[in-house]
Amino acid sequence: MLGEPTNDLDTDMLAAMEDVLDSWGGCLIVVSHDRYLIERVTDQQYAVIGGELRHLPGGVEEYLRRSRERDAATAAEASGKPQVSAAQQKRAALGGAELRALEKEFSAVDRKLAKTTDARAKLMTKFETHDQSDFDGLLELQQELADTDAQIAGLEERWLELSEQVG
Fold it and tell me: What is the pTM of this model?
């Protein structure tokens, strides 16, 4: 568990630490405002938003987008003018059946993403316990990991698309 690990480091130490963390085989929990570090050394990003821990499949960019939307809503509320976000406009344009279908797909993708992410974690455990001299077995595990990562990337992309449509 690391709390603001890049504070007060010179560039050489920062690069060395990032290299070590990037190749770390175990679990890391990194709390940091260093966006570059978070994107480089973590597979999953979370943020505290509205007092709740939220998963951010889109990483730092998703967090920044949500922050801009929250700031715009706060500014609109302070000015007394109701603001309708682009997501709310898209949602209003959808018919009831279309919206329900999108919500169902969103829920299904969300569940499948969680399940696939868990499968990836189990696969990483297999890597750690696998006989390191069994190159064929390691190659199979590596291919399975690449397939799982590709599946996660596709699910995250679809999740983001659906979250924009559903709001």
Answer: 0.46
